[in-house]
C-alpha cells in the first residue's frame, strides 16, 4: 500500500508548489509573470501597455519597465503599430527546453492525439504547476465547436476543485489539498470527497458528472484562471469553483447502474446511461507520485456504462505507457485503498 509518510521523499508538483507559495515571494517577479500570462492568454493578438496594465491591475508606467526588460531578453516582441507587444521567440526556446526535460509530456501528447482520433473526443493532458491546475496539451477539438479548455488555462488547485489531481497522491497530500479550500466544506461534503478518493485509487480512473453548472464551469474556469490575475481574482475564482463544482461518480454508480444523485438503478448490463462530463486517469512519476492527468471530454447526458468503461480503458492504457516510460507505477492498484479516513 502506498504510504502517507512524506518524510525524506520527493513531493508531487501540487504539494511542493502549494508549499512554496507560502514561503518568501518576489513581487517584481510576480508582476512579470502576470504580464507574461496576460499576453499568453491574448495570443496571437498583441496588447498595448495600457491594456496589459488593465488586465493585470498595474499602472502602465510599471508595466512599461517590465515589458521593456522582457522585450530586450527576447521573451516579448514589439509590434510597431501602437506599439503593442506579443510573446517572443525566447519563450519558444524555453518551452522546447522544458518539453525536452519532461519526456512524459511528449509521450502523453502523442497518446492524447491518438486517442482523440480514435475516440472522436477532445482529450487533454494537465498537471499542477505553481499551485495551479494547468492544461499542458490538447488534441481533437471537434470541428465547429468552441474549445472547452485551452492550452495554458489555469485555475487554483484547492478543494473541491481538482480532486483527480489529489486523489492518487498520498493521504497527507489529500489532507493538504482539503485544507486549501477557500470556503468551509460541510462534513458530508468532505466525506463524499474522501469516498471519491478511495474509488479513484481502487478503479484507477474517475468519471465526472455532467450538469448545467458543470458545463458553465468548463467555460468560465479556464477563462477566469487565465484572466483573473492577482490574489483577489484567484480567491474569487477558487470560491466560485468551491461553491459550484459538483460531485463525481463513484465506482458503484457504474458497476450497478445506480446514479448517486437519485438512487435509481439496478443491474447494469452496460446499456444504462449516465450524464458524463470528463473521464480522467493519472500518470505516475519515477517516485510513484501522480504526474499528469489525461482526460477525455465526453460532455454527454447519455453515455452508456459500456462506453464509459471503454474510454476509461483506452485512457488507462495510454497513461500506463507514459508511466512505464519513466519506470513509475500506480501504487494503489491491486492493493487495499488508502486510509483517507
Describe this structure in words.
The protein is an alpha+beta fold and 341 residues long. The protein has 2 domains: 13-94, Orthogonal Bundle (Arc Repressor Mutant, subunit A); 98-325, GAF domain (Beta-Lactamase, 2-Layer Sandwich). Helices cover 48% and strands 18% of the residues. The chain has 13 helices and 9 strands. It has helices at 13-21, 27-42, 49-56, 60-72, 89-100, 103-119, 163-166, 171-179, 187-203, 212-227, 230-244, 251-255, 305-325, and strands at residues 47-48, 76-79, 84-87, 122-129, 132-139, 154-156, 206-209, 273-284, 290-304. The strands form 2 sheets. It has a 6-stranded antiparallel sheet. Strands 1-3-2 form a 3-stranded antiparallel sheet. A hairpin with a 4-residue loop joins strand 2 (76-79) and strand 3 (84-87). Helix 3 packs across helix 4 (60-72). The chain starts with 12 loop residues before the first helix and ends in a 16-residue tail after the last helix.
Q: CATH H-level name of the largest domain... which superfamily?
A: GAF domain
Number of strands: 9
- Write down the Rg: 21 Å
- The sequence of SSEs as H and E is HHEHHEEHHEEEHHHEHHHEEH
Question: Whole-Å distance between the termini?
Answer: 15 Å
As a percent range, the share of strand residues is 15-25%
CATH architecture of the largest domain: 2-Layer Sandwich
Largest sheet: 6 strands, antiparallel
Overall spatial form: globular
| Amount of helix | 40-55%
Q: Largest sheet, order of strands side by side?
A: 6-5-4-9-8-7
Number of helices: 13
Oligomer: single chain
Structural class: alpha+beta
CATH topology of the largest domain: Beta-Lactamase
User: What is the overall pLDDT average?
Assistant: 78
Overall domain count = 2
Per CATH, the class of the largest domain reads Alpha Beta
pLDDT < 50 runs, ≥5 residues? 1-20, 256-267, 334-341
Amino acid at each position: 500500500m502506498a504510504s502517507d509518510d512524506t518524510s525524506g521523499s520527493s513531493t508531487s508538483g501540487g504539494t511542493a508548489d502549494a508549499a512554496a507559495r507560502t514561503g518568501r515571494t518576489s513581487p517584481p517577479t510576480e508582476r512579470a509573470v502576470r504580464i507574461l500570462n496576460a499576453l499568453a492568454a491574448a495570443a496571437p493578438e498583441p496588447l498595448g501597455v495600457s491594456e496589459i496594465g488593465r488586465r493585470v491591475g498595474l499602472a502602465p508606467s510599471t508595466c512599461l519597465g517590465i515589458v521593456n526588460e522582457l522585450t530586450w531578453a527576447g521573451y516579448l516582441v514589439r509590434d510597431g503599430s501602437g506599439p503593442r507587444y506579443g510573446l517572443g521567440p525566447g519563450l519558444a526556446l524555453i518551452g522546447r527546453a522544458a518539453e525536452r526535460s519532461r519526456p512524459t509530456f511528449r509521450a502523453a501528447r502523442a497518446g492524447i492525439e491518438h486517442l482523440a482520433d480514435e475516440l472522436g473526443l477532445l482529450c487533454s493532458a494537465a498537471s499542477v504547476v505553481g499551485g495551479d491546475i494547468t492544461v499542458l496539451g490538447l488534441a481533437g477539438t471537434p470541428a465547429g465547436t468552441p474549445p472547452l479548455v485551452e492550452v495554458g488555462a489555469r485555475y487554483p488547485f484547492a478543494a473541491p476543485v481538482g480532486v483527480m489531481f489529489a486523489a492518487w497522491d498520498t493521504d497527507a497530500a489529500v489532507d493538504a489539498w482539503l485544507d486549501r479550500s477557500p470556503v468551509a466544506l460541510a462534513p458530508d461534503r468532505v466525506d463524499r470527497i474522501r469516498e471519491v478518493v478511495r474509488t479513484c485509487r481502487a478503479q484507477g480512473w474517475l468519471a465526472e458528472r455532467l450538469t448545467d453548472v458543470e458545463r458553465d464551469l468548463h467555460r468560465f474556469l479556464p477563462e477566469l484562471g487565465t484572466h483573473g490575475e492577482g490574489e483577489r481574482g484567484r480567491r474569487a475564482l477558487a470560491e466560485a469553483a468551491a461553491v459550484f463544482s459538483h460531485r463525481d461518480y463513484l465506482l458503484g454508480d457504474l458497476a450497478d447502474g445506480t446514479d448517486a444523485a437519485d438512487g435509481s438503478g439496478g443491474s447494469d448490463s452496460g446499456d444504462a446511461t449516465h450524464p458524463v462530463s470528463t473521464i480522467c486517469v493519472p500518470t505516475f512519476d519515477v517516485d510513484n507520485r501522480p504526474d499528469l492527468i489525461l482526460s477525455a471530454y465526453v460532455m454527454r447526458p447519455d453515455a452508456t456504462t459500456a462506453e464509459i468503461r471503454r474510454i476509461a480503458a483506452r485512457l488507462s492504457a495510454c497513461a500506463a505507457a507514459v508511466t512505464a516510460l519513466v519506470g513509475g507505477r500506480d501504487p494503489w492498484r491491486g492493493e487495499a485503498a488508502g486510509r483517507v479516513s
